[in-house]
Amino acid sequence: MNTTASSSSTGGGEHFQRCWRIQTCQGCLGQEPDCSWCPFSWTCVPNSNRLQLLAPAWDENVCPHWAERWEIRTRPLGCQVSTITTLTSLVTVASTLALVLLVTLTVLGARGIKAYSKKNPGWWKIWRYDWRRAASECRRRLRAGLRFKAHDADTRNQNREQEPLLPS
Fold first, then answer.
1. Residues 66 and 111 both lie in one domain
2. pLDDT on residue 63
3. Which of 8, 80, 134, 164 could bond 46 through an S-S bridge, CB–CB 3.0 to 4.6 Å?
4. Contact yes or no for 14/35 (Cβ under 8 A)
């Protein structure tokens, strides 16, 4: 079982004793400014981190039992809100705002494309290209026995690959 003595700062023994003697969450968070409540082990532990809510990120032994590390209750939020609940809420709100921003940008982009399409009709249509002329030219080249340059390069590379890399 981990001890919380490592999470105390200077004058650690006195700070530890001041927090450890308190047996209720309200008393722990209300009486001492540098104490936090670990709910599973019902202990008031010293927490002298600048952001007490994020103490588990810097000190893995902030609570006596490892499983309650992220369940710690701190002074700014009270006994009903744990660190993991707060962080989950913050991530959820940030993700929701990012999704709303993405949807808004998509809608604005679609409106912009629609407005551009009204000013320049047919700008995106691939069938504006004369495919019949391109196909007839391709057939003419094939009938004449001419090959495409890409095809010639492929056959040259195939011949080169058959040569051995190292001399025998």
1. no
2. 87
3. 8
4. no
